[in-house]
Amino acid sequence: MESISFPEGFVWGAATAAFQVEGATTADGRTASIWDTFCQIPGAVVGGDTGEPAADHYYRVDQDVALMADLGLHAYRFSIAWPRVRPDGGAVNQAGLDFYSRLVDSLLDKGIDPWVTLYHWDLPQALEDRGGWTNRDTAYRFAEYAETVVGALGDRVVNWTTLNEPWCSAFLGYASGVHAPGRQEPEAAAAAVHHLLLGHGLGVAAIRSARPEARVGITLNMYPIIPADPEDPADLDAARRLDGLQNRIFLDPLFKAEYPADVVADLEPFGFSKHIQPDDLSVISAPLDQLGVNYYAEHFVSAKPAEAPAATNGRRPTSSPWIGAEHVTFPSRGLPRTDMNWEVQPDGLYKVLVRLHEEYPRLPLYITENGAAYRDAVGEDGGVHDPERLDYIDSHLRAAHAAIRAGVDLRGYFAWSLMDNFEWAEGYAKRFGIVHVDYETQVRTPKMSAMWYSKVARGNALAATAVS
Fold first, then answer.
1. Residue 459, Cβ neighbours under 10 Å: how many?
2. What is the DSSP string of 199-225?
3. With contact defined as beta carbons under 8 Å apart, do 157 and 104 qualify?
4. With 0-12 CB in 10 A as exposed, 13-18 as middle and 19+ as buried, what is 132?
5. Residues in CB range of 460: below 8 A, 6 or more apart
6. Domain map of the chain by residue range?
7. 3-state secondary structure string, 323-370?
8. Which of 199, 302, 335, 456 would be 139's cystine partner, CB 3.0–4.6 Å?
9. Within 10 Å of residue 312's Cβ, how many Cβ atoms?
10. What is the per-residue pLDDT across 114-125, written as a single tens digit (0 to 9) for each?
11. 168-178 burial, b for 16+ CB within 10 Å, e for fewer?
């Protein structure tokens, strides 16, 4: 049977984030980020885990690049640690820049394209002390930081992402308190949304000024929002509210130079509009070269109360991230779930990609994160057998290919993640990697999914039939 081939030049990569893999949290002039501080809050992170030593990527970077080359990856999506490059948000730290310069050179030497994300949630704590993303000034400090990094790496790096998942930064960081900085203030979350987007727009301008030839984008985590009862007006309104907060509040200003009117109305109790100044939206909507899409699951939502409150399991109390829609619940559909308790729904990826194609300006799309956490370990044979993860990636790649057949200009896929790492508030309890990391020895072991993914990348194709 014929295989399912992807377009010529399709990019096959894997992704990480600085705080999740680097470790070395005080090395070579790096100062504290909001995540270093958050990890010290009792009950904030499972097991009291911290970002030290994570996957020790800072000291094992050459080994990790060689591993990527062995797997045949075309590209490596990684993020820059802001507090490593401009500690405390202030003066440039050359030692930090030198680390990333060495990483870029090592990647290029192995024929691997570096894809740089400027912000993957590790705001310098000193800037948070001045208000963080609730403070408009942080957007301007981000532009300065972007200019610094592009000035150092832009002669070798073509593909740039300003922000990764601003939804998480704003709503998990400032509304629910699940992520750093751990605040539970709806008004702060509303301010953070706009200032993150403003920072993105200012960052785009800084990149283009330094390197006009750069390819610039942003990465959004997008989810189809499905009402539990499509005949129930309350469930329909719940879906509208969440679609506004998850998807349209970012897509519309980026690509239509406006915030959705219904979302603005929903957020008025939290003072959203007062943060928007003249010309902000023209800055935010600066033309982009590509859009990154992170996809993990759909949101199946209802306005009906949950059957039982979620267990805290010793975690610190948190709030709903859905400001103005705190009543919305997420009933089960009985679908298979990952170790993160997220539904496995590959068709949702198809829906996201087609929606972008049909409703927004058409520009190249890249799946910049997709993957799953499962409980796996090194077996007696020395291998890591993870058929559930392999099946997850396979099924989502088939959904992505279906979107390409439907006309979507999808140009690449980055598995999340290259290796097991510090999974934010879950600490080291969840493993997303296609490469297993023994946190005691830091030994890397490619999992069965990595070997399979390597064959897909080298062949630019899937088998004609699904793996299961």
1. 14
2. HHHHHHHHHHHH-TT-EEEEEEE---E
3. yes
4. buried
5. 5, 6, 8, 10, 12
6. 4-462
7. CCCCCCECCCCCCCECCCCCECCCHHHHHHHHHHHHHCCCCCEEEEEC
8. 199
9. 10
10. 999 999 999 999
11. bbbbbbbbbbb
Place of tokens 């100044």: 277
pTM over 0.90: yes
Tokens of 234: 């309350």
Q: How far apart are CA 16 and CA 236, in angstroms?
A: 36
CATH code: domain 4-462 is 3.20.20.80
- Three-class secondary structure of residue 128 per DSSP: helix
**Active site amino acids:** 165, 369
Rounded CA separation 234/226 (Å): 13
Q: Which residues are known binding-site members?
A: 20, 120, 164, 296, 416, 423-424
Q: What's the token pair of residue 414?
A: 């980055």
Which tokens sit at 150?
A: 């592009």
Of 173, 153, 162, nearest to 202 (Cα)? Answer: 162
Q: Which residues of 136-146 are buried (b: 16+ CB within 10 A; e: fewer)?
A: bebbebbbebb
Q: What is the pLDDT of residues 265-314, one digit of tens each?
A: 999 999 999 999 999 999 999 999 999 999 999 999 999 998 766 666 67
Q: Which residues are annotated as a binding site for substrate?
A: 20, 120, 164, 296, 416, 423-424
